[in-house]
Amino acid sequence: MMWRNIASNFLTLLIVLLIAAAAAVAWGRHQFSGPGPSAVAQCVQVAPGASLNAVSQQLVEQGAVSNSYVFRAGTDYLDKARDLKFGSYLVPPQASMEEIVGIITEGGPSTCGTEVLVRVGVRENAVLLRDMNPDTGAFEEMARFDPATETAPEAITAAVDKPGARLRVAMAEGVTSWQVVEALKAAPFLTGEVEDIPAEGSLAPDTYEVEKGGSRSALLALMAQRQAAILAAEWEARPFGLPYDTPEEALIMASIVEKETGVAEERPQVASVFVNRLERGMRLETDPTVIYGITNGQGVLERGLRRSELAATTPYNTYRVDGLPPTPIANPGRAAIRAALNPDSTDYIFFVADGTGGHAFSRTLEEHNAAVARWREIERQRGEDPTSPVQGDG
What we know:
Elements: H1 2-33, E1 42-46, H2 52-62, H3 68-77, E2 87-91, H4 97-106, E3 114-120, E4 125-133, E5 138-145, H5 154-160, E6 166-171, H6 177-186, E7 190-191, E8 207-210, E9 214-215, H7 216-236, H8 247-260, H9 267-279, H10 287-295, H11 307-311, H12 334-341, E10 350-353, E11 359-362, H13 365-382
Helix pairs in contact: 2-3, 7-12, 8-9, 8-12, 9-12
InterPro entries: MLTG-like
Catalytic activity: a peptidoglycan chain = a peptidoglycan chain with N-acetyl-1,6-anhydromuramyl-[peptide] at the reducing end + a peptidoglycan chain with N-acetylglucosamine at the non-reducing end
Protein name: Endolytic murein transglycosylase
């Protein structure tokens, strides 16, 4: 009888322990996969060689996870305890432990913390030092310099050497290949010489993640590879009947569209004007091509075009020569390439600035002259030169 009572009590205790263990496992799973405690984004930095124990304690201190033991146990269960990747990672608000494990073990470029950004712009290049504000999830500028006229401040030099710093090159749409090369020469984290300037139009505007000591030539090759892929894909999907014999001709048109308008939704309309003019045997009469013939893409023409320049017969003066210029005049983005290959169906053959940053489009010379008169009046009101040439003057 006594042994029966002992066995019964032992069985009862075992059942209680099993229930408690099951409850603990269920609680742990809920803690591991459920929403995390942080109401804001967190920048989690994994130091080189950091242990799982150190990282789990750091996450608790930052308020990103609620229990370091559950985090370690879950990471072990997923067999990722040895997969921690050095870097700085942005963890979104209320991220679960499971999500955080994925973020810090998948690796890749740092997504928060300190960033050194080389910005390749049409009018200027700049090197920026930025830090992520975890409360807003946005980068805030801490320092900057113009590599053409200034020396790098110590803060930027130190940031390049900082472990985990994010290093990027942001290439704007419409910059020339010469401008890109000049910017990469000034990038403090890249190495190597650039022997030749890439062909105009051959580089894809985008933001590129790089590593300290990376090759300038290799980055240019990557830019060219992306642009070739974009052009091939858009050319393959083009509609029938466009006035281009080759993808290269479409790229030339895309570069003109890119330089003619900064309004994204206007690109297909601008492309339609030039396509219509080509199909009617009209000259393109576009200022950006003339400007490129003067500057050769090496900087910005800081003045208006002169009548003598518009009268000169050069390969890039589309007021004087038929068809497209011989090469692109900038590096167009995907949207401009798509617009050149998918122009709107319109009867427009003229356009002129409308004073709002966009353009007024016209079907006839009479309509265009009225639009030009409105633009001239805006120029007078602004104190600008109202005699500068516009499309249709030639």
